[in-house]
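My hope is that you will study the record closing this message with an eye to the fold:
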Amino acid sequence: MGLISEVLLLPFAPVRGSAWAIRQALSEAERIYYDPATVRAELAQLEARLEAGEMDEEEFDRMEDELLDRLEIGLRNGV
C-alpha cells in the first residue's frame, strides 16, 4: 500500500515540498524572533534610541514590555 500511495501522491510532491520549506522558514524565523541574544540586542538599541531622544518614555516602556515578553518566552522555551 505504501508504494501505491506514493505513486498516486507523486503529482502532489511539489506542494508537499513547498509546505515543508514554508514550515522550515517559519520555524527559523520564530527561532530568531525569540532568540535571547537577538532580543537583548534590540533592547540595547531601544535604550540607545531613548537616550538619543528619538522616542519618549511612554513609547520606550511599551516597546520594552514587548521585548521583555519575547525574552521571557524565548528563555522559557529554550530557544
User: Anything to note?
Assistant: The first helix runs from residue 2 to 9. The mean pLDDT is 89. Helices lie at 2-9, 13-34, 36-51, 57-77.
